[in-house]
């Protein structure tokens, strides 16, 4: 009997392991949420109470790097490893190659967080290996299919270059260079938000409205997509050459206006009864809001706009990541596209984290340390709820019995 139970236990754990590696979104969406739930409270505890982090970097650089190249890049990987097979008709990424790629990403996180223990070259090599490896997965099917999404590879390459620039700053002991690299990396992510958001938000909105029997067709101006993409490229270019300047503020303000006009075409108010849809609109709304705050901060020096980067990173990028992860995890496991109440709470808590982090010091009159602590608590609760609902989904087979 004991032997039978042992075999059942081994089979169960083997099945979970195989399911986790059944499709690209599974390990990377789970990894994204785990990193988010662990590293932000660690960073907040380090900032507020001096809890040690075994990294050889300044805490703020570790925090910025891991949120960008740890959390956001993992979510991008999960999205691309799931979307590319759908775009190209190629076989999905699974099994031991996916395990190696996931392990490479995880080793980078361990190496960076414990960088005080290792040679700088080893830490850089581990971390910088991931994006080229990811490109090795997605480049061949995109090129074979001559897919229209192939230019997205340039975004991955740009992120990799900014990570190299970050390590140059770390090796030189020049925090300004490292922070500049993070700024440009964020701009690259916002370009990706503009491209991907501009494709999925109107498409998912139109589909949801049609299914709900709401006669409200989306009529979008085709010119808005190239205008929005060009504006975000302009934001990045100015930030490369004149970061923190009035020119950067002016370009950000123009980009904000373009993004507002783009969003207004997508029938946001019609989606307010559909959490899985309105959260996409909410994420995109943070993009022009963050760009507006950037313009106000750089052109007018307004104190309440000083934390615009967190409007763009927590508000726009992370909210869109959570929105996509919740939807894709349901759809690609054969479940209905309806989010549970805890997921809606997670959306709200993440929004609260963004509001407190951006406006806490100026509008809520909170001490900066308290602002960090409250925002971190909201953020951590949001990802804890995500893990509570979606970890079982990501670890279990599809409900319809199909592979993936």
What labels describe this entry?
404 residues; 14 helices; Cytochrome C Oxidase, Chain A; mainly alpha
Can you give me a brief rundown of this structure?
It is built from 14 helices and no strands. The protein has helices at 2-20, 25-49, 59-88, 95-113, 120-128, 130-145, 152-172, 175-211, 224-241, 246-264, 275-300, 308-331, 341-363, 368-395.
Describe this structure in words.
- By secondary structure, this protein is an all-alpha fold.
- It has a single domain (18-395), classed as Cytochrome C Oxidase, Chain A (Up-down Bundle).
- It is 78% helix and 0% strand.
- It contains 14 helices and no strands.
- It has helices at residues 2-20, 25-49, 59-88, 95-113, 120-128, 130-145, 152-172, 175-211, 224-241, 246-264, 275-300, 308-331, 341-363, 368-395.
- It is globular.
- The chain starts with a helix and ends in a 9-residue tail after the last helix.
- The model is unreliable at 1-14 (pLDDT under 50).
């Amino acid at each position: 009997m004991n032997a039978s139970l042992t075999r059942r236990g081994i089979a169960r754990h083997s099945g979970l392991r195989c399911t986790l590696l059944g499709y690209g979104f599974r390990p990377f969406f789970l990894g994204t949420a785990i990193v988010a739930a662990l590293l932000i409270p660690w960073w907040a505890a380090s900032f507020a109470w001096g809890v040690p982090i075994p990294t050889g970097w300044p805490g703020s650089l570790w925090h910025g790097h891991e949120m960008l190249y740890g959390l956001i890049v993992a979510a991008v990987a999960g999205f691309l490893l799931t979307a590319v097979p759908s775009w190209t008709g190629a076989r999905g990424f699974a099994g031991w190659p996916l395990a190696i790629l996931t392990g490479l990403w995880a080793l980078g996180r361990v190496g960076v967080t414990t960088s005080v223990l290792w040679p700088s070259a080893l830490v850089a090599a581990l971390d910088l290996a991931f994006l080229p490896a990811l490109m090795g997965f997605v480049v061949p099917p995109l090129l074979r299919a001559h897919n229209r999404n192939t230019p997205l590879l340039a975004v991955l390459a740009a992120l990799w270059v900014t990570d190299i620039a970050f390590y140059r700053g770390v090796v030189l002991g020049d925090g300004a260079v490292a922070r500049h690299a993070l700024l440009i990396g964020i701009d690259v992510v916002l370009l990706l938000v503009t491209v991907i958001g501009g494709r999925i938000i109107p498409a998912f909105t139109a589909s949801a409205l049609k299914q709900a029997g709401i006669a409200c067709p989306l009529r979008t101006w085709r010119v808005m997509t190239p205008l929005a993409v060009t504006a975000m490229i302009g934001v990045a270019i100015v930030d490369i050459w004149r970061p923190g300047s009035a020119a950067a503020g002016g370009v950000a303000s123009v980009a904000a206006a373009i993004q507002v006009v783009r969003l207004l075409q997508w029938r946001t108010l019609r989606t307010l009864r559909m959490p899985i849809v309105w959260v996409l609109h909410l994420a995109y709304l943070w993009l022009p809001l963050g760009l507006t705050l950037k313009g106000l901060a750089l052109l007018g020096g307004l104190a309440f706009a000083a934390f615009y980067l967190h409007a763009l990173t927590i508000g726009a990028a992370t909210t869109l990541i959570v929105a996509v992860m919740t939807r894709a995890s349901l759809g690609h496991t054969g479940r209905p596209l309806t989010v549970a109440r805890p997921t809606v709470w997670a959306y709200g808590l993440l929004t609260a984290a963004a509001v407190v982090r951006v406006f806490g010091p100026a509008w809520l009159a909170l001490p900066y340390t308290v602002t960090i602590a409250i925002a971190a608590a909201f953020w951590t609760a949001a990802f804890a709820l995500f893990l509570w609902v979606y970890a079982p989904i990501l670890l279990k087979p599809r409900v319809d019995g199909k592979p993936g």
